[in-house]
């Protein structure tokens, strides 16, 4: 293979999945510095990739290709939708790819691979099997010419590395080669966002997640919040929709000086997380964002396996609980105080 192959990464969503795919950009750059690396991602997650765009001497992603499937499905019979789709396909096919790496194992991602323009003998690599508690669609294998078998219990970062190493015929990149996510210089330059009512030091509490069983109980949040508030921290409960806002307001109403901030975007989340003394959250994308930014983070697991997404790359991350074993308030408090120590 050429030392400057054209590589397409296909990881469309969701927030946490995109974050845990970032290390392969660094893995590729370390071994193929002259490669072209493009990434197709759902348009709502483009901001997650922008810090890795190649510019000002930093060599990361050459091109981000937004994909509007979620929005298009809601407007399937509108002419504008199909114009956007064909514009997407034209953009995708403006480059002939030598390697396509699809680490999601879903039909929609595999179809994106099929739409891409490929060189003769191009490698199209994807998952040969599911991992426990992860979405997987076996029909996607029909679109690969290299199906990669991964362990049944395989961390999201490790899974992406398995597929990448197989696609490029590399030895497996082990965990002692610590994954990288965002450029350290960029992380240190994130400006802190001003929010009405927010004062430092504050602790972010991400209580919401897509699946109710993954939530930590309201009583636990209130007990934890009262303790942290009594130690001089403002406890902040972000939200992402009307039902989540109602829960945030309920929790905040029982904790002195707690705050329910206005809704904020993924782009805003970088600044708000960067300014926090600590993030405490359930297994959800914004908690994982704090972890990959290297910020002090307590990840709470209640009904999802810890091995799947735990932050193993930093001593500033504490992982507590496990599938069907939610942690006690005391466990979370001890982890929080440990990370809050100077």
In CATH terms, the superfamily of the largest domain is Glycogen Phosphorylase B
The shape, in one word, is globular
Uncertain residue segments: none
Overall pLDDT? 96
Percentage of residues in helical conformation: 25-40%
Quick one: how many beta strands? 11
Domain tally: 2
Biggest sheet features: 6 strands, parallel
CATH topology of the largest domain: Rossmann fold
CATH class of the largest domain: Alpha Beta
Q: Based on the structure given, which CATH architecture of the largest domain is correct?
A: 3-Layer(aba) Sandwich
Radius of gyration: 21 Å
Separation of the first and last Cα atoms: 49 Å
Structural class, by secondary structure, is alpha/beta
Number of helices: 14
Strand content: 15-25%
Plain-language structure description:
With about 350 residues, the chain is of the alpha/beta class. The protein folds into two domains: about 5-185, Rossmann fold (3-Layer(aba) Sandwich); about 195-340, Rossmann fold (3-Layer(aba) Sandwich). About 35% of the residues lie in helices and about 20% in strands. It is built from 14 helices and eleven strands. The protein has helices at about 15-20, 25-30, 45-50, 70-75, 80-90, 105-115, 155-165, 185-190, 220-230, 240-250, 265-275, 285-290, 305-310, 330-340, and strands at about 5-10, 35-40, 65, 95-100, 115-125, 145-150, 200-205, 235, 280, 295-300, 315-320. The strands form two sheets. It has a six-stranded parallel beta sheet with strand order 3-2-1-4-5-6. Strand 10, helix 13 (about 305-310) and strand 11 (about 315-320) form a beta-alpha-beta unit. Helix 2 (about 25-30) packs parallel to helix 7 and helix 9 runs parallel beside helix 14 (about 330-340). It is globular, with a radius of gyration of 21 Å. The model has no long low-confidence stretch (mean pLDDT about 95).
């Amino acid at each position: 293979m050429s030392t400057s192959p054209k590589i397409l990464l296909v990881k469309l969503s969701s927030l946490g999945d995109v974050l845990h795919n970032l290390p392969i950009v660094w893995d590729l750059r370390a071994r193929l510095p002259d490669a072209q690396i493009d990434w197709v991602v759902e348009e709502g997650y483009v901001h997650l990739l922008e810090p890795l765009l190649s510019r000002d001497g930093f060599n990361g992603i050459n091109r981000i290709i937004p994909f509007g499937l979620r929005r298009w499905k809601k407007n399937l019979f509108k002419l504008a939708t199909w114009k956007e789709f064909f514009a997407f396909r034209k953009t995708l096919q403006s480059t002939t790819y030598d390697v396509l790496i699809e680490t999601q194992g879903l039909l929609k991602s595999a179809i994106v691979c099929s739409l891409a323009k490929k060189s003769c003998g191009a490698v199209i690599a994807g998952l040969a099997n599911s991992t426990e508690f992860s979405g997987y669609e076996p029909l996607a294998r029909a679109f690969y010419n290299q199906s990669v078998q991964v362990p049944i219990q395989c961390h999201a970062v490790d899974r992406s590395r398995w597929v990448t190493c197989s696609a490029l015929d590399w030895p497996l990149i082990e965990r002692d080669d610590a994954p990288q996510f965002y450029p350290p210089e960029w992380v240190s330059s994130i400006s802190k966002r001003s929010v009405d009512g927010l004062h430092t030091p504050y602790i972010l509490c991400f209580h919401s997640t897509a699946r109710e069983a993954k939530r930590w109980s309201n009583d636990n949040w209130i007990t934890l919040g009262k303790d942290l508030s009594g130690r001089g921290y403002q406890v902040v409960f972000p939200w992402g929709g009307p039902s989540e806002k109602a829960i945030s307001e309920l929790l905040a109403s029982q904790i002195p000086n707690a705050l329910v901030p206005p809704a904020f975007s993924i782009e805003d989340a970088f600044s708000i997380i960067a300014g926090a003394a600590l993030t405490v959250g359930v297994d959800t994308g914004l908690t994982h964002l704090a972890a990959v930014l290297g910020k002090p983070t307590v990840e709470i697991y209640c009904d999802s396996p810890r091995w799947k997404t735990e932050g193993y790359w930093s001593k500033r991350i504490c992982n507590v609980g496990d599938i069907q074993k939610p942690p006690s308030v005391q466990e979370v408090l001890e982890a929080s105080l440990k990370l809050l120590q100077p």
